[in-house]
């Protein structure tokens, strides 16, 4: 379970996150949406310790990120993250991309890591691309490899930062399908996305953020059909 | 530790050693400046030849650049100093070798010829970074190629490449140290000479380092003032 | 025409061998240290960034010749006994050239998107692992043309080890010249040999530059 309590983050004078409170239970899929600059990406990066926060506390499975004794590396082994621009390692094959971390971080043998990688490639639908380089893959394929790469560490949590925003429309579905399957299999997910079809299918809760605050939260139906705030209403108008 | 070393930092202040360093510095500055004057003007020529319509001139320019950049400066210097006079034949060559201070003249010329090839390369980069549309815009006002280059392109390119030229100016002072190998009594030579006399080479070279540092910082400061005067408004800074 | 060269060819080429040896160690050490220096230059930790930046800016104001002398004087003091000039030269070159290679690596690291590092960290990798498997290899490949060009410069710079008596190519040539006084041939020979090696080197660098441009620079 991820608990975010009264978290605020400043970037110089600018307050990027203000008093964020939220809890994500195991198995839940949480969707975060909002206009750009609202702090959504920053929030994700605070959860896995990539960005520090000044006030409040984030607790993952009982371990607080504010505690100086916390080993952030160990924490990140357990929280996978998928980025908007895929960020595959360009100098390595797909197989190497996926098996690198298990081999170096979990000290798996090459055979074990490659076997796992092959399974994951099967799961995301592109087993034949194992020896290809990222440059030879389409955007959708690259993103699926990125998902496989995160899953290789067998995390309990997966975070997605606008995973389909950089994709051509024809490829969005193949990535969303993988994500939907992941959610249905019980993965705990935090997704920053504007893909409302995805949210409707699997989101247990939707959070709407604006200017660093959580302005509204609720189930898909509540948020979509009956947005309570003016900002949320405007936002929905724009993305539909 | 068996090799006890007796540090003597006073060697830097004691005359005549301190004075030697300063005299060396003065010669370093003179050589650098004179070499730069040659390098700058000759380098602009070579750089410009590269874009003339005549194939032989273009070839000369790129050949010059390739030759001077692919041979170490030390080798060039030795060639001009030892082999150079002989290129003028036996008798004339011997006369040249009698000239007082020949090593300084050769050092300045060698430095100028070498650095000119680097200036020419920077010019090429400068020309290349000016968009083809700009060239066409000038030509469409009816100017000839020559006029275009003379009044627009060359001055424009020079201002674009002011930062790398500043670096070259700094580099020429550093390269002047190589002249010590033919006996030019510049700063590095002097620090070595102090060691020859006092066996306190470490202090002497450390002192010389400090002086080069001051020289470098001064040059950078002066050049950045000049850069600011010549900067093209609106262009992305360094 | 090149008779003085021919009759002394083994001696001269022996010197070239020393030049190659010195270049090899200078490059191996300079590039390795340069990769680290580059990392230091982009470090957010001021205890790393400041000393390394100081070191780089300090060295870049100094002539290589002076640095060679300085190490020539300092190494025996540190070691406590007289040292082989080759060793002092290697150390001097590594320390000096690492600053130039460092700036090249720095440009390479800066061309890598922050999110790529973030992706590596997100799989639980440490800074060292990320630097070793991701940052350095990618930067190296991207900056290969510049690295080759700088290596050519280093190769030429080894001629300066002349001044501490190292029996490299140029010094041996000047020894022969003192005997035979056939300066045009002898120095012409040195010039031609260097030219051939460096010219080929720069063609190789350009090849990688073209290749990089075609495959989208990784």
Please, could you describe this protein's structure?
- The complex is a heterotrimer of chains A (240), B (238) and C (218).
- Chain A is built from nine helices and ten strands.
- Chain A is an alpha/beta fold and 240 residues long.
- In chain A, the strands form two sheets. In chain A, strands 6-7-8-3-9-10 form a six-stranded mixed β-sheet, sandwiched between helices. A four-stranded antiparallel β-sheet of chain A has the order 2-1-4-5, with helices on one face.
- In chain A, helix 6 (169-184) links the parallel strand 7 and strand 8.
- In chain A, helix 4 (110-124) crosses helix 5 and helix 5 packs parallel to helix 6.
- The longest helix of chain A has 16 residues, at 169-184.
- With 238 residues, chain B is mostly helical.
- Chain B is built from ten helices and no strands.
- Chain B has helices at residues 17-49, 55-69, 73-83, 90-98, 102-129, 132-139, 145-160, 162-175, 187-198, 201-230.
- Chain B is flat.
- Chain C is mainly alpha-helical and 218 residues long.
- In chain C, 81% of the residues lie in helices and 0% in strands.
- Chain C contains ten helices and no strands.
- In chain C, helix 2 (9-41) packs across helix 5 (85-110) and helix 5 runs antiparallel to helix 8.
- The N and C termini of chain C lie far apart (50 Å).
- Chains in contact: A-C, B-C.
- The interface between B and C is large, with 44 and 42 residues.
Brief description of this entry?
The complex is a heterotrimer of chains A (240), B (238) and C (218). Chain A is an alpha/beta fold.
Notable traits:
heterotrimer, A: 240 residues, alpha/beta, 9 helices, 25% strand, C: mainly alpha
What order do the helices and strands come in, and which of them pair?
The complex is a heterotrimer of chains A (240), B (238) and C (218).
Chain A: E1 2-11, E2 14-24, E3 29-33, H1 40-47, E4 55-60, E5 63-64, H2 72-77, E6 79-82, H3 94-104, H4 110-124, H5 139-151, E7 157-161, H6 169-184, E8 188-192, H7 196-202, E9 205-210, E10 213-218, H8 220-225, H9 230-239
Parallel strand pairs in A: 3-8, 3-9, 6-7, 7-8
Antiparallel strand pairs in A: 1-2, 1-4, 4-5, 9-10
Chain B: H1 17-49, H2 55-69, H3 73-83, H4 90-98, H5 102-129, H6 132-139, H7 145-160, H8 162-175, H9 187-198, H10 201-230
Chain C: H1 3-7, H2 9-41, H3 46-59, H4 64-79, H5 85-110, H6 114-122, H7 127-142, H8 144-157, H9 169-180, H10 183-214
Helix pairs in contact in C: 2-5, 2-8, 2-9, 3-5, 4-5, 5-7, 5-8, 8-10, 9-10
């Amino acid at each position: 379970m991820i608990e975010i309590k009264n978290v605020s983050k400043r970037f110089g004078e600018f307050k990027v996150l203000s008093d964020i409170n939220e809890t994500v239970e195991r198995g839940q899929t949480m969707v975060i949406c909002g206009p750009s600059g609202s702090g959504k990406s920053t929030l994700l990066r605070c959860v896995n310790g990539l960005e520090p926060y000044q006030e409040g506390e984030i607790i993952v499975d009982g371990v607080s990120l504010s505690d100086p004794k916390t080993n952030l590396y160990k924490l990140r082994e357990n929280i996978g993250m998928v980025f908007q621009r895929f960020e595959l390692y360009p100098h390595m094959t797909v197989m190497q991309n996926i098996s690198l971390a298990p081999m170096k971080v979990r000290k798996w043998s090459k055979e074990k890591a490659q076997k796992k990688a092959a399974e994951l490639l099967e799961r995301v639908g592109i087993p034949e691309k194992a020896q290809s380089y990222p440059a030879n893959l389409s955007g959708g394929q690259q993103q699926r490899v990125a998902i496989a790469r995160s899953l290789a560490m067998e995390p309990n949590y997966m975070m997605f930062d606008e995973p389909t925003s950089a994709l051509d429309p024809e490829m969005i579905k193949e990535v969303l399908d993988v994500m939907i399957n992941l959610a249905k299999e019980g993965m705990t997910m935090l997704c920053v996305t504007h893909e409302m079809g995805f949210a409707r299918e699997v989101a247990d809760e939707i959070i709407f953020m604006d200017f660093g605050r959580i302005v509204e939260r609720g189930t898909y139906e509540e948020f979509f059909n009956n947005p309570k705030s003016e900002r949320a209403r405007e936002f929905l108008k724009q993305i539909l | 530790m068996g090799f006890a070393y007796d540090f003597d930092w006073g060697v830097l202040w004691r005359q005549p050693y301190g004075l030697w360093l300063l005299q060396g510095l003065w010669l370093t500055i003179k050589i650098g400046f004179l070499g730069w004057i040659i390098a700058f003007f000759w380098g602009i020529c070579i750089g410009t030849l590269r874009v003339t319509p005549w194939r032989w001139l273009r070839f000369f320019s790129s050949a010059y650049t390739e030759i001077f950049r692919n041979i170490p400066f030390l080798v060039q210097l030795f060639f001009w100093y030892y082999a150079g006079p002989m290129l003028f034949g036996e008798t004339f060559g011997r006369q040249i070798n009698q000239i007082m201070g020949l090593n300084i003249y050769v050092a300045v010329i060698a430095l100028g010829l070498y650095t000119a090839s680097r200036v020419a390369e920077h010019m090429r980069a400068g020309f290349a970074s000016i968009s083809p549309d700009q060239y066409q815009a000038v030509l469409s006002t009816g100017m000839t190629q020559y006029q275009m280059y003379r009044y627009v392109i060359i001055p424009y390119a020079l201002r674009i490449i002011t930062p790398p030229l500043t670096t070259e100016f700094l580099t020429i002072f550093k390269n002047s140290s190589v002249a010590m190998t033919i006996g030019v009594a510049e700063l590095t030579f002097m620090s070595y000479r102090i060691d020859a006399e006092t066996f306190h080479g470490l202090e002497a070279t450390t002192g010389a380092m400090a002086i080069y540092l001051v020289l470098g910082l001064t040059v950078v400061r002066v050049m950045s003032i000049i850069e600011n005067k010549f900067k093209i408004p609106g262009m992305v800074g360094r | 025409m090149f008779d003085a060269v021919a009759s002394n060819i083994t001696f001269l080429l022996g010197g070239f061998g020393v030049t190659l040896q010195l270049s090899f160690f200078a490059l191996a050490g300079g590039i390795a240290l340069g990769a680290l220096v580059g990392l230091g230059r982009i470090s957010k930790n001021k205890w790393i960034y400041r000393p390394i930046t100081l070191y780089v800016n300090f060295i870049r104001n100094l002539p290589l010749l002076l640095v060679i002398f300085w190490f020539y004087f300092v190494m025996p003091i540190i070691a406590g006994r007289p040292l082989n000039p080759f060793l002092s030269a290697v150390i001097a070159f590594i320390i000096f050239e690492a600053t130039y290679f460092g700036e090249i690596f720095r440009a390479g690291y800066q061309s890598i998107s922050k999110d790529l590092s973030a992706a590596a960290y997100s799989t639980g990798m440490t800074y060292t692992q990320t630097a070793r498997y991701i940052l350095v290899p990618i930067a190296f490949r991207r900056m290969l043309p510049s690295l080759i060009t700088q290596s050519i410069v280093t190769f030429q710079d080894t001629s300066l080890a002349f001044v501490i008596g190292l029996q490299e190519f140029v010094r041996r040539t000047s020894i022969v010249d003192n005997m035979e006084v056939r300066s045009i041939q002898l120095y012409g020979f040195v010039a031609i040999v260097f030219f051939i090696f460096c010219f080929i080197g720069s063609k190789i660098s350009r090849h990688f530059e073209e290749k990089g441009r075609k495959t989208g620079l990784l």
